[in-house]
Amino acid sequence: MRLLCTNDDGILAHGLQCLVAAAEPLGEVTVVAPDREQSATSHSLTLHHPVRPISLGERRWQVDGTPTDCVMLAVEALMPERPDFVLSGINHGQNMGEDVLYSGTVAAAMEGISIGIPSIAISFAGGDLRADVSMLDDQIEPLTRLLRHLVSLPAFPPDTLLNINLPPVSGDDIRGVRLTRLGRRVYSGSIKRMQDPWGRPIYWIGGGSIEWSGPPNSDFRAIEEGFISVTPLHLDVTHHAILDAPESWWQEQ
Predict the structure, then answer these.
(1) Average pLDDT of the residues in 11-18
(2) How far apart are CA 132 and CA 76, in angstroms?
């Protein structure tokens, strides 16, 4: 089995090292990842300048581009054969609710799905990078078990990526795995007004507080209760219920 590993935290990220360690028992691993952090780049492509892959060793490449660039470049140029699966992560920080709209981690898996390769995004719902290193290491074995199950499914869901979030607990304290739906989250105070050295106003986006909401089978509730969350995400974002009942909001002219 050929596995492509990528991420949005960059080639040096500890989460990527953990993902590779979790994936290696399953098959041949190729790593193609950004040369720097690309968080919140979503499904963006580099169109206005060329991207340059640099070999770091056998089946290891860094790319001066986005996670989407990495998947496209790996499949179309760097790997001698198409991978059987794209694995993206392990992102340091959750990708739940609306996070999936911004996430480079999820976007890399989405690119895999869009070119016909089953794909899985993995994130770790921790906060403090230094404090979380041991917990991430602890989750390699349970993640291997979960990935082994998922890649062995007789029929991987078509046009669907699986978005995994790992709870911020040690591996022994994981209570199990739940199939979940996306929750909803609202950020407050995420824009900070500052001044540059010349006294001009600037704004920094990020941080703030988060409020979550959603039904009992939401991703964030699984994480709160110590479970691994697995959320299927479909490429088709059409609201089919409205499409199937157009008389409630639309009349042909």
Answers:
(1) 95
(2) 35
